[in-house]
Amino acid sequence: MLKVDNLTFEVNEEGRKRCLVNHVSFQVADGEMLVITGPNGGGKSTLAKVLAGIENADEGQIFLDEENISGYDIDHRANAGIGYAFQQPPRFKGMTVARMLSLAAGKELTEAESCRLLSAVGLCSADYLNRQMDGTLSGGEMKRLEIATVLAKPHKVSIFDEPEAGIDLWSFSMLIKRFEEIHKEKKESLILISHQERIIRMADKIMVIEDGEVKQYGSRDEVLPTLFTRESCGRCANGLEGGVC
Ligand SMILES: Nc1ncnc2c1ncn2[C@@H]1O[C@H](COP(=O)(O)OP(=O)(O)OP(=O)(O)O)[C@@H](O)[C@H]1O
Asked: Where are the domains of the chain?
């Protein structure tokens, strides 16, 4: 169980404090899937970075199975069981895909194991295992490799920031299947940040974040109908595409 209590993250903008994550509290039970959605710039990625230990919270606490991980850095949080896939994955010059997957798995993977991971994200291992994780890979390829690194190891909670971004339709379907399998197995909890209706509909719980605050949080049946009846974003008069802006 992940328990997030009163999490706050501020930045200093030209001498003025701006709260990007504003007293956010929620829980993700074992095996549960939480989808976080909301308008662009609402604070979803920032919240994910604070959960993963990339940014340090100014206030609040994070508990993973009763363990207070609030003071842990990114490595300690990963060891405690938090997996995190960036919205925009970093590239690593000089590192092959095979090496990266083994590092992510925490053990030397066989070719067959690496192949299974790459297949789950729609990549053919023969073409990729010896490629460098550098600028020669396309944005969509990097995104799928980043997701494969999180899938390489079991976590208590895996956070995927917009896993659909830049991914083609065929790979997206495979990815959805993998998320469905993980969800069905109930061995790990998933937090998916997404604007994609198909992903939002998979959730056990949905949280809407806007202006750094939790605007809605509840079961899929409670929140989903309200998403698709909102006509405009709460922050501005912009129309919503497919129900979510
Ligand atoms: N380090 C930072 N310093 C200042 N402002 C930041 C910083 N990081 C993010 N922001 C701003 O905070 C707000 C929230 O950004 P964030 O990336 O968390 O939004 P998001 O909900 O993930 O958006 P999107 O749906 O577009 O991915 C944005 O206005 C962004 O420009």
From this structure: 2-87+156-227
